[in-house]
Sequence to fold (542 residues):
Amino acid sequence: MNIAKRKIYDACVIGSGAAGGFMAKELTEAGAKTILLEAGRRVEPAELAVHDYPYELPRRGFYPNPHTPLYPDFPRYENQGRDPVGISTLRALGGRTLHWNAAVFRFSEDDFRERSLNGVEEDWPLSYRELAPIYSYVERILPVCGTRENLKEVPDGEFYAPPPRLRCSEQIAKKACEKLGLRLIPTRKALLVGRSKSLAGRAPCHYCGHCMSVCDVGAIFTSTNTTIPQALATGNLTLRTNALARQILVDERGRASGVVVIDRTTNKEEEIRARVVVVSCATVESARLLLNSRSEKFPNGLGNSNDVVGRYLHGHSVSNLTGYLTDLVGTPPVNNDGANDHGYIPRFNHLRGQRGYAGGFHMQTQYLSFMHPHHVRSLPGFGSSFKKRVRDLHPALLHFGGFGKVLARPENRVLVDRSKTDSYGIPIPIIKFEFCDNDRLLFRDMVANMEEIYHTAGIELVSKPSDVSGFASHEVGTCRMGTNPKTSVLNSYCQSHEVPNLFVVDGSSFTTFPEKNPTLTIMALAVRSARYIAEERRKGNL
Fold:
Protein backbone atom coordinates (compact mmCIF):
# COMPACT_ATOMS: atom_id res chain seq x y z
CA MET A 1 0.00 0.00 0.00
CA ASN A 2 1.23 3.48 -0.86
CA ILE A 3 1.04 5.68 2.26
CA ALA A 4 1.37 9.40 1.55
CA LYS A 5 3.19 10.29 4.78
CA ARG A 6 4.04 13.83 3.84
CA LYS A 7 0.47 14.98 3.31
CA ILE A 8 -2.28 15.16 5.92
CA TYR A 9 -5.39 16.94 4.69
CA ASP A 10 -7.58 18.99 6.99
CA ALA A 11 -10.58 17.10 5.62
CA CYS A 12 -11.31 14.17 3.34
CA VAL A 13 -14.78 14.16 1.74
CA ILE A 14 -15.91 10.85 0.23
CA GLY A 15 -18.51 11.29 -2.52
CA SER A 16 -19.08 14.25 -4.84
CA GLY A 17 -22.87 14.41 -5.10
CA ALA A 18 -25.30 16.88 -3.56
CA ALA A 19 -23.84 16.66 -0.05
CA GLY A 20 -20.20 16.15 -0.99
CA GLY A 21 -20.20 19.09 -3.39
CA PHE A 22 -21.59 21.50 -0.81
CA MET A 23 -19.33 20.12 1.90
CA ALA A 24 -16.25 20.63 -0.29
CA LYS A 25 -17.35 24.16 -1.18
CA GLU A 26 -17.99 25.20 2.42
CA LEU A 27 -14.84 23.64 3.89
CA THR A 28 -12.49 25.03 1.27
CA GLU A 29 -14.02 28.50 1.50
CA ALA A 30 -13.42 28.29 5.25
CA GLY A 31 -9.74 27.64 4.55
CA ALA A 32 -9.57 23.85 5.04
CA LYS A 33 -7.20 21.92 2.79
CA THR A 34 -9.65 19.33 1.52
CA ILE A 35 -9.46 16.26 -0.70
CA LEU A 36 -12.63 15.17 -2.46
CA LEU A 37 -12.75 11.48 -3.39
CA GLU A 38 -15.07 10.23 -6.12
CA ALA A 39 -15.26 6.54 -7.00
CA GLY A 40 -16.25 7.29 -10.61
CA ARG A 41 -14.91 9.36 -13.44
CA ARG A 42 -15.90 12.68 -14.96
CA VAL A 43 -18.74 12.17 -17.44
CA GLU A 44 -19.18 14.69 -20.24
CA PRO A 45 -22.76 15.34 -21.48
CA ALA A 46 -21.58 14.88 -25.06
CA GLU A 47 -20.96 11.20 -24.31
CA LEU A 48 -24.60 10.52 -23.55
CA ALA A 49 -26.50 11.41 -26.75
CA VAL A 50 -28.99 13.36 -24.63
CA HIS A 51 -31.09 14.64 -27.51
CA ASP A 52 -31.28 11.48 -29.57
CA TYR A 53 -34.74 10.06 -30.14
CA PRO A 54 -35.46 6.80 -28.30
CA TYR A 55 -35.36 4.78 -31.52
CA GLU A 56 -31.86 6.12 -32.26
CA LEU A 57 -30.31 4.76 -29.07
CA PRO A 58 -28.24 1.61 -29.64
CA ARG A 59 -29.49 -0.06 -26.45
CA ARG A 60 -33.05 1.22 -26.43
CA GLY A 61 -35.21 -0.57 -23.90
CA PHE A 62 -32.19 -1.97 -22.06
CA TYR A 63 -31.88 -1.03 -18.39
CA PRO A 64 -28.43 -1.32 -16.77
CA ASN A 65 -28.19 -4.24 -14.36
CA PRO A 66 -26.03 -3.34 -11.35
CA HIS A 67 -25.27 -7.04 -10.79
CA THR A 68 -23.31 -7.45 -14.04
CA PRO A 69 -19.65 -6.51 -14.56
CA LEU A 70 -20.64 -4.82 -17.83
CA TYR A 71 -21.52 -1.70 -15.84
CA PRO A 72 -18.70 -1.02 -13.36
CA ASP A 73 -20.05 2.47 -12.67
CA PHE A 74 -23.19 1.02 -11.07
CA PRO A 75 -22.28 -0.36 -7.61
CA ARG A 76 -23.46 -3.91 -7.02
CA TYR A 77 -25.91 -4.81 -4.25
CA GLU A 78 -28.22 -7.68 -3.40
CA ASN A 79 -31.85 -7.38 -2.34
CA GLN A 80 -32.78 -10.09 0.16
CA GLY A 81 -35.88 -8.28 1.40
CA ARG A 82 -39.50 -9.28 0.93
CA ASP A 83 -40.55 -6.21 -1.05
CA PRO A 84 -39.24 -4.65 -4.28
CA VAL A 85 -37.23 -1.47 -3.85
CA GLY A 86 -35.11 0.33 -6.41
CA ILE A 87 -31.76 1.76 -5.36
CA SER A 88 -30.07 3.75 -8.09
CA THR A 89 -26.48 4.75 -7.37
CA LEU A 90 -23.92 5.94 -9.86
CA ARG A 91 -20.16 6.24 -9.73
CA ALA A 92 -19.46 9.48 -11.55
CA LEU A 93 -18.23 12.93 -10.61
CA GLY A 94 -21.28 14.80 -9.35
CA GLY A 95 -23.10 11.63 -8.32
CA ARG A 96 -26.85 11.68 -8.77
CA THR A 97 -26.92 15.44 -9.31
CA LEU A 98 -25.93 14.52 -12.87
CA HIS A 99 -29.34 12.97 -13.57
CA TRP A 100 -31.77 14.25 -10.97
CA ASN A 101 -35.08 15.96 -11.58
CA ALA A 102 -33.97 19.00 -9.54
CA ALA A 103 -37.24 19.14 -7.57
CA VAL A 104 -36.50 21.02 -4.33
CA PHE A 105 -39.12 21.27 -1.59
CA ARG A 106 -38.47 22.34 1.98
CA PHE A 107 -39.52 20.04 4.77
CA SER A 108 -42.16 21.67 6.95
CA GLU A 109 -42.03 22.34 10.69
CA ASP A 110 -44.20 19.29 11.32
CA ASP A 111 -41.91 17.02 9.31
CA PHE A 112 -39.25 17.26 12.02
CA ARG A 113 -41.64 16.24 14.84
CA GLU A 114 -43.23 12.90 13.98
CA ARG A 115 -43.13 11.53 17.52
CA SER A 116 -44.50 14.69 19.13
CA LEU A 117 -47.30 15.20 16.61
CA ASN A 118 -48.18 11.73 15.34
CA GLY A 119 -46.78 9.30 17.88
CA VAL A 120 -44.61 7.47 15.37
CA GLU A 121 -40.85 7.21 14.80
CA GLU A 122 -38.68 9.87 16.52
CA ASP A 123 -38.35 13.65 16.49
CA TRP A 124 -35.33 15.07 14.70
CA PRO A 125 -32.62 16.55 16.95
CA LEU A 126 -33.05 19.88 15.16
CA SER A 127 -36.00 22.02 14.09
CA TYR A 128 -37.22 23.66 10.91
CA ARG A 129 -36.35 27.08 12.35
CA GLU A 130 -32.73 26.03 12.76
CA LEU A 131 -32.56 24.83 9.16
CA ALA A 132 -34.65 27.58 7.52
CA PRO A 133 -31.83 30.15 7.04
CA ILE A 134 -29.60 27.42 5.60
CA TYR A 135 -32.38 26.37 3.23
CA SER A 136 -32.39 30.00 2.04
CA TYR A 137 -28.62 30.01 1.57
CA VAL A 138 -28.69 26.81 -0.48
CA GLU A 139 -31.65 27.97 -2.59
CA ARG A 140 -29.79 31.14 -3.59
CA ILE A 141 -26.78 29.10 -4.75
CA LEU A 142 -28.74 26.55 -6.78
CA PRO A 143 -30.79 28.84 -7.63
CA VAL A 144 -34.46 27.82 -7.32
CA CYS A 145 -37.43 28.88 -9.41
CA GLY A 146 -40.87 28.75 -7.85
CA THR A 147 -43.88 30.69 -6.62
CA ARG A 148 -44.85 31.81 -3.15
CA GLU A 149 -47.98 29.91 -2.11
CA ASN A 150 -48.08 30.40 1.69
CA LEU A 151 -48.66 26.70 2.37
CA LYS A 152 -47.76 25.24 5.75
CA GLU A 153 -47.19 21.81 4.21
CA VAL A 154 -44.44 23.04 1.88
CA PRO A 155 -42.85 26.30 3.10
CA ASP A 156 -41.95 28.97 0.59
CA GLY A 157 -38.29 29.45 -0.24
CA GLU A 158 -35.94 31.91 -1.94
CA PHE A 159 -37.22 31.96 -5.52
CA TYR A 160 -35.28 34.01 -8.06
CA ALA A 161 -37.90 33.59 -10.81
CA PRO A 162 -41.21 31.88 -11.60
CA PRO A 163 -40.89 28.29 -12.90
CA PRO A 164 -42.01 27.17 -16.37
CA ARG A 165 -45.73 27.70 -16.97
CA LEU A 166 -48.17 24.85 -16.61
CA ARG A 167 -48.81 22.99 -19.85
CA CYS A 168 -52.29 22.39 -21.24
CA SER A 169 -52.59 18.95 -19.63
CA GLU A 170 -51.49 20.36 -16.28
CA GLN A 171 -54.01 23.18 -16.53
CA ILE A 172 -56.75 20.57 -17.00
CA ALA A 173 -55.41 18.62 -14.01
CA LYS A 174 -55.34 21.84 -11.97
CA LYS A 175 -59.03 22.49 -12.70
CA ALA A 176 -59.84 18.92 -11.66
CA CYS A 177 -57.96 19.45 -8.40
CA GLU A 178 -59.88 22.66 -7.73
CA LYS A 179 -63.17 20.79 -8.12
CA LEU A 180 -61.96 18.44 -5.39
CA GLY A 181 -60.75 21.24 -3.12
CA LEU A 182 -57.07 20.48 -3.80
CA ARG A 183 -54.13 22.65 -4.88
CA LEU A 184 -51.96 22.07 -7.95
CA ILE A 185 -49.18 24.66 -7.86
CA PRO A 186 -46.14 25.37 -10.06
CA THR A 187 -43.22 23.17 -9.14
CA ARG A 188 -39.96 24.27 -7.49
CA LYS A 189 -36.75 23.32 -9.24
CA ALA A 190 -33.01 24.02 -9.14
CA LEU A 191 -33.28 25.26 -12.69
CA LEU A 192 -32.22 28.31 -14.66
CA VAL A 193 -35.14 29.68 -16.66
CA GLY A 194 -35.60 32.73 -18.87
CA ARG A 195 -33.12 35.04 -20.52
CA SER A 196 -32.61 37.08 -17.37
CA LYS A 197 -30.65 34.38 -15.55
CA SER A 198 -27.35 32.81 -16.56
CA LEU A 199 -24.34 31.76 -14.55
CA ALA A 200 -20.77 30.83 -15.40
CA GLY A 201 -20.85 27.62 -17.41
CA ARG A 202 -24.64 27.37 -17.20
CA ALA A 203 -27.27 28.37 -19.76
CA PRO A 204 -31.03 28.72 -19.23
CA CYS A 205 -33.35 25.79 -19.86
CA HIS A 206 -34.29 25.16 -23.48
CA TYR A 207 -37.16 22.81 -22.51
CA CYS A 208 -35.86 19.65 -24.13
CA GLY A 209 -37.44 17.44 -21.46
CA HIS A 210 -34.25 15.54 -20.62
CA CYS A 211 -33.75 16.75 -17.05
CA MET A 212 -33.05 13.29 -15.68
CA SER A 213 -30.89 12.23 -18.63
CA VAL A 214 -28.17 14.82 -17.89
CA CYS A 215 -28.72 18.48 -18.71
CA ASP A 216 -26.11 19.25 -21.35
CA VAL A 217 -26.41 23.06 -21.06
CA GLY A 218 -26.19 23.19 -17.27
CA ALA A 219 -29.62 24.68 -16.66
CA ILE A 220 -30.07 22.07 -13.93
CA PHE A 221 -27.81 22.48 -10.89
CA THR A 222 -25.13 19.82 -10.49
CA SER A 223 -22.14 19.57 -8.22
CA THR A 224 -19.94 19.59 -11.31
CA ASN A 225 -21.26 22.89 -12.67
CA THR A 226 -21.51 24.83 -9.41
CA THR A 227 -20.17 23.70 -6.03
CA ILE A 228 -17.10 21.74 -7.13
CA PRO A 229 -15.85 24.55 -9.42
CA GLN A 230 -16.41 26.99 -6.56
CA ALA A 231 -14.37 24.75 -4.26
CA LEU A 232 -11.60 24.39 -6.84
CA ALA A 233 -11.48 28.18 -7.24
CA THR A 234 -10.34 28.53 -3.61
CA GLY A 235 -7.10 26.68 -4.31
CA ASN A 236 -7.82 24.50 -1.26
CA LEU A 237 -9.36 21.49 -3.01
CA THR A 238 -7.64 18.39 -4.31
CA LEU A 239 -10.00 16.38 -6.53
CA ARG A 240 -9.47 12.64 -7.04
CA THR A 241 -11.69 10.68 -9.41
CA ASN A 242 -11.74 6.89 -9.82
CA ALA A 243 -10.81 6.66 -6.13
CA LEU A 244 -13.01 4.00 -4.53
CA ALA A 245 -13.08 4.15 -0.73
CA ARG A 246 -12.62 0.68 0.76
CA GLN A 247 -12.16 1.42 4.45
CA ILE A 248 -11.89 4.28 6.94
CA LEU A 249 -8.95 3.81 9.28
CA VAL A 250 -8.74 4.78 12.95
CA ASP A 251 -5.82 5.63 15.22
CA GLU A 252 -5.06 4.38 18.71
CA ARG A 253 -7.54 6.89 20.17
CA GLY A 254 -10.37 5.57 18.03
CA ARG A 255 -10.47 8.65 15.81
CA ALA A 256 -10.64 8.51 12.03
CA SER A 257 -7.13 8.87 10.63
CA GLY A 258 -7.48 8.21 6.94
CA VAL A 259 -9.18 6.40 4.09
CA VAL A 260 -7.95 3.41 2.13
CA VAL A 261 -8.86 3.90 -1.53
CA ILE A 262 -8.54 1.73 -4.60
CA ASP A 263 -7.51 3.50 -7.79
CA ARG A 264 -9.96 2.05 -10.29
CA THR A 265 -7.60 2.74 -13.20
CA THR A 266 -4.64 0.84 -11.68
CA ASN A 267 -6.31 -1.37 -8.98
CA LYS A 268 -3.66 -0.17 -6.54
CA GLU A 269 -4.45 0.73 -2.94
CA GLU A 270 -3.48 4.01 -1.34
CA GLU A 271 -4.05 5.59 2.06
CA ILE A 272 -5.32 9.16 2.21
CA ARG A 273 -4.72 10.76 5.60
CA ALA A 274 -6.94 13.49 7.04
CA ARG A 275 -7.85 15.13 10.34
CA VAL A 276 -11.58 14.99 9.55
CA VAL A 277 -13.38 12.39 7.43
CA VAL A 278 -16.75 13.20 5.85
CA VAL A 279 -18.80 10.38 4.31
CA SER A 280 -21.30 11.37 1.60
CA CYS A 281 -21.59 8.25 -0.55
CA ALA A 282 -25.43 8.04 -0.48
CA THR A 283 -27.52 6.09 1.99
CA VAL A 284 -26.69 2.50 1.10
CA GLU A 285 -23.06 3.04 0.15
CA SER A 286 -22.32 5.15 3.24
CA ALA A 287 -23.63 2.41 5.52
CA ARG A 288 -21.64 -0.13 3.55
CA LEU A 289 -18.41 1.83 4.00
CA LEU A 290 -18.87 2.17 7.77
CA LEU A 291 -19.80 -1.51 8.15
CA ASN A 292 -16.74 -2.53 6.12
CA SER A 293 -14.49 -0.27 8.24
CA ARG A 294 -13.91 -2.84 10.96
CA SER A 295 -11.01 -2.61 13.35
CA GLU A 296 -9.94 -3.82 16.77
CA LYS A 297 -11.68 -0.81 18.34
CA PHE A 298 -14.77 -1.13 16.13
CA PRO A 299 -15.26 -4.84 15.34
CA ASN A 300 -18.89 -4.25 14.29
CA GLY A 301 -18.07 -1.43 11.91
CA LEU A 302 -16.98 2.15 12.43
CA GLY A 303 -19.14 4.07 14.90
CA ASN A 304 -21.42 1.06 15.22
CA SER A 305 -21.04 -0.24 18.76
CA ASN A 306 -24.83 0.16 19.16
CA ASP A 307 -25.55 -1.86 15.97
CA VAL A 308 -27.57 1.02 14.47
CA VAL A 309 -25.46 1.65 11.34
CA GLY A 310 -27.42 0.26 8.41
CA ARG A 311 -30.71 0.12 10.32
CA TYR A 312 -33.81 2.27 9.73
CA LEU A 313 -33.47 2.07 5.96
CA HIS A 314 -36.50 3.70 4.39
CA GLY A 315 -37.52 5.90 1.48
CA HIS A 316 -40.61 6.71 -0.54
CA SER A 317 -43.29 4.38 -1.71
CA VAL A 318 -43.84 5.24 -5.35
CA SER A 319 -46.94 5.16 -7.53
CA ASN A 320 -46.84 6.03 -11.23
CA LEU A 321 -50.14 6.51 -13.05
CA THR A 322 -50.26 7.08 -16.77
CA GLY A 323 -53.47 8.23 -18.42
CA TYR A 324 -54.74 10.20 -21.40
CA LEU A 325 -57.03 13.24 -21.25
CA THR A 326 -60.17 12.77 -23.32
CA ASP A 327 -60.20 16.46 -24.30
CA LEU A 328 -56.74 16.16 -25.88
CA VAL A 329 -57.02 12.80 -27.64
CA GLY A 330 -56.54 13.22 -31.39
CA THR A 331 -55.46 16.87 -31.19
CA PRO A 332 -52.53 18.01 -33.36
CA PRO A 333 -49.17 17.21 -31.73
CA VAL A 334 -47.31 20.08 -30.09
CA ASN A 335 -43.98 20.35 -28.28
CA ASN A 336 -44.89 19.33 -24.74
CA ASP A 337 -41.39 18.52 -23.55
CA GLY A 338 -40.74 21.41 -21.16
CA ALA A 339 -38.60 20.93 -18.05
CA ASN A 340 -40.14 17.60 -17.10
CA ASP A 341 -42.74 18.27 -14.40
CA HIS A 342 -44.15 21.79 -14.22
CA GLY A 343 -46.90 21.07 -11.69
CA TYR A 344 -46.92 19.87 -8.09
CA ILE A 345 -49.72 18.73 -5.76
CA PRO A 346 -48.63 19.21 -2.11
CA ARG A 347 -49.68 16.91 0.71
CA PHE A 348 -53.43 17.13 1.37
CA ASN A 349 -54.56 13.83 2.88
CA HIS A 350 -54.26 15.22 6.43
CA LEU A 351 -56.95 17.77 5.53
CA ARG A 352 -59.47 15.06 4.66
CA GLY A 353 -60.04 13.62 8.12
CA GLN A 354 -58.65 10.50 9.77
CA ARG A 355 -57.19 8.16 7.18
CA GLY A 356 -56.17 5.25 9.43
CA TYR A 357 -52.44 5.69 8.93
CA ALA A 358 -49.62 8.10 9.75
CA GLY A 359 -47.86 10.17 7.11
CA GLY A 360 -48.67 11.82 3.83
CA PHE A 361 -47.99 11.85 0.11
CA HIS A 362 -47.53 14.34 -2.69
CA MET A 363 -47.78 14.18 -6.47
CA GLN A 364 -45.54 15.42 -9.25
CA THR A 365 -46.88 15.74 -12.78
CA GLN A 366 -45.45 14.98 -16.20
CA TYR A 367 -41.87 14.02 -15.40
CA LEU A 368 -41.97 11.37 -18.12
CA SER A 369 -40.42 12.34 -21.45
CA PHE A 370 -42.88 13.10 -24.25
CA MET A 371 -40.39 11.64 -26.70
CA HIS A 372 -41.43 8.14 -25.70
CA PRO A 373 -44.92 6.68 -26.41
CA HIS A 374 -45.47 5.26 -22.93
CA HIS A 375 -48.84 3.75 -23.80
CA VAL A 376 -47.68 1.47 -26.60
CA ARG A 377 -47.27 -1.68 -24.52
CA SER A 378 -50.66 -1.19 -22.86
CA LEU A 379 -52.71 -0.94 -26.07
CA PRO A 380 -54.23 -3.95 -27.82
CA GLY A 381 -54.20 -4.50 -31.58
CA PHE A 382 -51.73 -4.09 -34.44
CA GLY A 383 -51.41 -2.56 -37.88
CA SER A 384 -52.63 0.83 -39.09
CA SER A 385 -55.47 1.13 -36.58
CA PHE A 386 -53.05 0.43 -33.73
CA LYS A 387 -50.61 3.06 -35.03
CA LYS A 388 -53.40 5.61 -35.33
CA ARG A 389 -54.46 4.94 -31.75
CA VAL A 390 -50.88 5.46 -30.58
CA ARG A 391 -50.68 8.81 -32.40
CA ASP A 392 -54.09 9.96 -31.18
CA LEU A 393 -53.29 9.30 -27.52
CA HIS A 394 -49.80 10.73 -27.53
CA PRO A 395 -50.69 14.46 -27.19
CA ALA A 396 -53.07 13.65 -24.33
CA LEU A 397 -50.58 12.20 -21.86
CA LEU A 398 -51.07 13.02 -18.17
CA HIS A 399 -48.60 11.33 -15.88
CA PHE A 400 -48.69 11.50 -12.08
CA GLY A 401 -45.89 10.30 -9.85
CA GLY A 402 -47.00 9.83 -6.25
CA PHE A 403 -44.45 9.71 -3.44
CA GLY A 404 -45.56 8.47 -0.03
CA LYS A 405 -44.01 8.44 3.41
CA VAL A 406 -42.59 5.16 4.67
CA LEU A 407 -41.98 4.59 8.38
CA ALA A 408 -38.41 4.26 9.65
CA ARG A 409 -38.12 0.86 11.33
CA PRO A 410 -34.98 -0.83 12.71
CA GLU A 411 -35.61 -4.20 11.04
CA ASN A 412 -35.25 -2.61 7.59
CA ARG A 413 -31.54 -2.38 7.06
CA VAL A 414 -28.34 -2.60 5.06
CA LEU A 415 -25.86 -5.35 5.94
CA VAL A 416 -22.62 -6.57 4.40
CA ASP A 417 -21.73 -10.19 3.71
CA ARG A 418 -17.99 -10.83 3.71
CA SER A 419 -18.53 -13.86 1.46
CA LYS A 420 -20.12 -11.71 -1.26
CA THR A 421 -17.76 -9.16 -2.74
CA ASP A 422 -17.53 -6.92 -5.78
CA SER A 423 -14.77 -7.03 -8.39
CA TYR A 424 -12.49 -5.11 -6.00
CA GLY A 425 -12.92 -7.63 -3.19
CA ILE A 426 -15.13 -5.30 -1.10
CA PRO A 427 -18.19 -6.86 0.59
CA ILE A 428 -21.35 -5.69 -1.17
CA PRO A 429 -24.46 -4.24 0.51
CA ILE A 430 -27.27 -6.65 1.37
CA ILE A 431 -30.70 -5.00 1.47
CA LYS A 432 -33.39 -6.33 3.81
CA PHE A 433 -36.63 -4.38 3.53
CA GLU A 434 -40.35 -4.92 3.97
CA PHE A 435 -43.20 -2.40 3.90
CA CYS A 436 -45.36 -2.34 7.04
CA ASP A 437 -49.16 -2.12 7.29
CA ASN A 438 -49.01 1.68 7.68
CA ASP A 439 -46.96 1.98 4.48
CA ARG A 440 -49.43 -0.16 2.54
CA LEU A 441 -52.50 1.71 3.80
CA LEU A 442 -50.94 5.02 2.84
CA PHE A 443 -49.95 3.69 -0.58
CA ARG A 444 -53.47 2.48 -1.35
CA ASP A 445 -54.95 5.80 -0.31
CA MET A 446 -52.40 7.64 -2.44
CA VAL A 447 -53.36 5.60 -5.53
CA ALA A 448 -57.07 6.08 -4.82
CA ASN A 449 -56.66 9.84 -4.59
CA MET A 450 -54.65 9.94 -7.80
CA GLU A 451 -57.38 7.97 -9.57
CA GLU A 452 -60.01 10.36 -8.20
CA ILE A 453 -58.19 13.31 -9.77
CA TYR A 454 -57.84 11.40 -13.03
CA HIS A 455 -61.55 10.56 -13.10
CA THR A 456 -62.47 14.22 -12.43
CA ALA A 457 -60.12 15.40 -15.20
CA GLY A 458 -61.60 12.98 -17.74
CA ILE A 459 -58.88 10.39 -18.13
CA GLU A 460 -58.51 7.10 -19.91
CA LEU A 461 -56.37 5.27 -17.38
CA VAL A 462 -53.86 3.11 -19.18
CA SER A 463 -51.66 1.91 -16.35
CA LYS A 464 -51.41 1.99 -12.59
CA PRO A 465 -49.32 0.05 -10.04
CA SER A 466 -50.52 -3.35 -8.90
CA ASP A 467 -48.70 -3.23 -5.56
CA VAL A 468 -46.53 -1.01 -3.41
CA SER A 469 -42.89 -0.44 -4.34
CA GLY A 470 -40.13 2.17 -3.65
CA PHE A 471 -37.70 4.10 -3.27
CA ALA A 472 -37.12 6.12 -6.49
CA SER A 473 -33.52 6.96 -5.49
CA HIS A 474 -34.93 8.56 -2.35
CA GLU A 475 -33.56 6.08 0.20
CA VAL A 476 -32.53 7.50 3.61
CA GLY A 477 -31.93 6.70 7.26
CA THR A 478 -29.10 4.16 7.68
CA CYS A 479 -26.88 6.44 9.81
CA ARG A 480 -29.60 8.43 11.44
CA MET A 481 -29.32 11.48 13.67
CA GLY A 482 -30.63 11.57 17.22
CA THR A 483 -30.06 12.76 20.75
CA ASN A 484 -29.70 9.25 22.19
CA PRO A 485 -26.36 7.60 21.29
CA LYS A 486 -27.91 4.20 21.98
CA THR A 487 -30.46 4.52 19.20
CA SER A 488 -28.75 6.81 16.68
CA VAL A 489 -25.42 7.11 14.89
CA LEU A 490 -25.03 10.88 14.58
CA ASN A 491 -25.81 14.07 16.49
CA SER A 492 -27.65 17.04 14.97
CA TYR A 493 -24.49 18.15 13.13
CA CYS A 494 -24.15 14.77 11.41
CA GLN A 495 -21.18 14.01 13.69
CA SER A 496 -20.61 10.45 14.86
CA HIS A 497 -21.44 9.92 18.54
CA GLU A 498 -18.46 7.56 18.85
CA VAL A 499 -15.89 9.03 16.46
CA PRO A 500 -15.80 12.83 16.90
CA ASN A 501 -13.93 13.57 13.66
CA LEU A 502 -16.24 11.44 11.51
CA PHE A 503 -19.29 12.99 9.80
CA VAL A 504 -21.96 11.46 7.55
CA VAL A 505 -23.87 14.09 5.57
CA ASP A 506 -26.07 12.42 2.96
CA GLY A 507 -29.61 11.08 3.21
CA SER A 508 -28.48 8.33 5.56
CA SER A 509 -28.47 10.95 8.34
CA PHE A 510 -32.26 11.51 8.18
CA THR A 511 -34.12 10.65 11.37
CA THR A 512 -37.44 10.39 9.53
CA PHE A 513 -38.57 11.19 6.01
CA PRO A 514 -41.75 12.92 4.82
CA GLU A 515 -43.18 12.72 1.32
CA LYS A 516 -40.96 15.46 -0.11
CA ASN A 517 -37.88 14.99 -2.28
CA PRO A 518 -34.76 14.72 -0.09
CA THR A 519 -32.03 16.60 -1.96
CA LEU A 520 -32.60 20.17 -0.74
CA THR A 521 -32.54 18.97 2.87
CA ILE A 522 -29.43 16.87 2.20
CA MET A 523 -27.67 19.99 0.91
CA ALA A 524 -28.82 22.13 3.85
CA LEU A 525 -27.63 19.54 6.37
CA ALA A 526 -24.25 19.35 4.63
CA VAL A 527 -23.83 23.12 4.86
CA ARG A 528 -24.83 23.11 8.54
CA SER A 529 -22.36 20.34 9.25
CA ALA A 530 -19.57 22.07 7.31
CA ARG A 531 -20.05 25.27 9.29
CA TYR A 532 -19.88 23.27 12.50
CA ILE A 533 -16.66 21.56 11.35
CA ALA A 534 -15.11 24.92 10.46
CA GLU A 535 -15.99 26.35 13.88
CA GLU A 536 -14.71 23.29 15.73
CA ARG A 537 -11.47 23.49 13.74
CA ARG A 538 -11.14 27.14 14.71
CA LYS A 539 -11.55 26.17 18.36
CA GLY A 540 -8.96 23.41 18.00
CA ASN A 541 -11.46 20.63 18.69
CA LEU A 542 -11.01 18.88 15.33
Summary: The first helix runs from residue 18 to 29.
